Structure of E3 ubiquitin-protein ligase RNF13:
Amino acid sequence: MALLRIGWGEDLQMICVLLVCFLMQIIDVSADVIINNSDNSTVSILSMPSTFGALLPPAGLTGYLAIADPLTACDRILPPPENFSNFDFFALIRRGSCNFDKKVLLAQESGYRGAIVFNNENNGIFPMTAESSTFEIAIPSVFVGLDGGEILFESDYTTGSMVTMTRTITLPWGYYLYPFITVITTCLIFSCFYGIAKFIRDRRRLRRIRLSKDHLKKLPVIKFKKGDDRYDVCAICLDEYEEGNKLRILPCQHAFHCKCIDPWLTNNRRTCPICKRKVVPPGVPDSDEESDDSTDENTPLLGGSSNRSSPIPDDSQFGAVGGQRRPSPEVFLDPPAPPPICESYDSGIVNNAATDKEDESTFELAGPENEPSQPDPPEVELLIDIESSNTPTPTV
């Protein structure tokens, strides 16, 4: 049990790791740089956090913005102004001339609490990556486009504007919602086509097994008259026919009330409720639209072909039993009559059976002589022990 628990624990850890990796792949982390101007106006600039350094706190990080000197920050830059030592400062750096991690590391060494790198070519943003070890970088950094960098140039600490870097975690619904909608739409389209095809197929099947109203009108209708012994009771409603009732006569010569048989033929099946014979109106060819192999709850278990009796096999198919040919079923042999028993005694002296049991009387069985057509049965010797001396002795 302990090994089982350990195995389950390892599997659970692996599942958790895979789930975290999956969430890291689908979760989109973005950042916004918010500029709070002195006139209480707010400007939000879309940014992208870097893949190295510290993460922005959930509440964001607020401070003043200072333009890096040199602007590319490929060499050591000037530290923040000393008269604003009670506030955090962010360095505004231009992209190019060196790696991103070097720019952020130099800004950290100069005393900045964060770094904002802007694109010097276009407004495209992407996560900044490191070319070397980034264990030394402990400040957050973001990347903004060209237009965002120009706005930040005009919002440094000299204007009194405060800058807030925030982090936003979102799911890229567009990347996953569109494929999901595509799959669902495709399934719905296929389902609709399948439903339409099934509806058409069912309608055709019902049209084949039901009788149309045009064909129903071709079946003869008579009015019942008392004294007509051919028809007495409707097999559907079990009511006796009355004078003037309209009866519909099927090709099998079974009659029913029109109000009873018409719904059966047009809504259920085009067969007689009594004999199950297919109803084909006079003058209408019996088409093979309804297959004879179709089965339903009314189909008999055994077909007509299966009711035929199979011929009795002879010995030529299975061979003789015991080396003898079996007689045909039509020939019957009478058992032979038992022959009469004729007793004959040998002459002699019968000794005492208690002392000498070796002497025995022999009875010979002879077959009847008046039956020469049958073979003589084998002779059987009956050995009779004379157990006592009280047995009468035959006289000669």
